[in-house]
Amino acid sequence: MIPEIETAQADEIRILQEQKLTKLIFYLAANSPFYQRLFKSNKINIAEIKKIEDLVKIPTSNKDDLQKYNEDFFCVPKTEIIDYVTTSGTLGDPVTIGLTDTDLERLAYNEAISFACAGVRKEDIIQLTTTMDRRFMAGLAYFLGARKLGAGIIRVGAGIPELQWDTILKFKPSYLIVVPSFLLKLIQYAKAHNIDYKNSGIRAAICIGESLRDQDFGLNVLGSKIKSEWDIELFSTYASTEMSTAFTECSEQQGGHLHPELLIAEILDDEGNEVPEGYSGELTITTLGIEAMPLLRFRTGDVVVAHRFPCKCGRNTLRLGPVLGRKKQMIKYKGTTLYPPAMDNLLNDFSEVTNHVIEIYHNQIGTDEIKIKITASSASERLLRNIKDHFRSRLRVSPKIEITDLKEIQKLQASKLGRKPIRVIDTRTV
What we know:
Layout: H1 4-7, H2 10-31, H3 33-41, H4 63-68, E1 83-87, E2 95-99, H5 101-117, E3 125-128, H6 137-149, E4 152-155, H7 161-171, E5 175-178, H8 180-192, E6 204-207, H9 221-229, E7 233-240, E8 245-249, E9 256-257, E10 263-268, E11 280-287, E12 298-307, E13 319-320, E14 325-326, E15 331-333, E16 336-338, H10 340-347, E17 353-362, E18 368-376, H11 381-395, E19 400-403, H12 406-413, E20 424-426
Parallel strand pairs: 3-4, 3-5, 5-6, 6-7, 17-20, 18-19
Antiparallel strand pairs: 1-2, 7-8, 8-9, 9-13, 10-11, 11-12, 12-13, 12-14, 15-16, 17-18
Helix pairs in contact: 2-3, 5-6, 7-8, 8-9, 10-11
């Protein structure tokens, strides 16, 4: 199930995107209070926005705008909204995202072709280990996508290794949708309970929420740990609630593929300019085909590298490498730029570390400080020294590291919406 446009030549992809862009611009001008003000205050003649290159004439928006003017982004009356979801906001309160019936169909299409990208077929059964409730879009998207593709799906929900294995052994799914570190817990449980997990019928995992790969697409420490214990295929997927679109790896595993019929992607520097090929920048998206809350040049906050050379799978679409970090969580620490995922990856080198939280804050003189609180199966001063030495050799800095009680870390990780544990606590105000 590969849409023809994804194997088309670059010129054909551009023509389709520009047709959809023109339609979007006029739709926003007619229906979006936020973009109506944006066009007027910046004296933008929407008739001049015809090419991808013309997008630079339009200022970017971001998560602060979406939170501050949430209802002004809606383009349809509430009577047209079929489903409501929320995402955590940068200013504290959740942001509401509404979807029409057409938007839900688009969401299903996106996930169906994303699953197909990772090799899922109609005869496969998928086990969903994430929640579908609590106003969470991803779980709903996975369910709708599997339904559209014609594959089976088992909605188990998050956690509870015992229930996960009971389901695997009973229904014989071939794919898991899972946070990759949870795979290690499934392996640990299987070993403890004499479950022959290597012959369980699981062929692959579509992994969300945590990176599996380094920037060269080789497996990182977490990915290597999983593969060394359980030789299943691992596919990364990246998405956000705001764009209702996923970037999922294909069999070549050389980055997540863009669906050009659903999204225009720009990789921008701090000044809003497209970065050179191979450089990192902030993913900025323009959604195509959304009715309720379309977005135009929306900065996601995620720092990525885009790859544009054709993929061996036959697709000619842009691909995204692993997310380097979030723009707002970038840390300037003793002259070095750091992102929390890099620290997560280094901690995975220590099997004794069982849980952690990264705290980022301003010290008394206003510079960035990092404290990593860990729990460990065998805590010792030697472990702390080894971790600090490892950080110095790999990242050239050594943040504060302290061993903490598990209950305190779980309390710090607790999310108000209860979807997934918080790994990074950033108290910086600017």
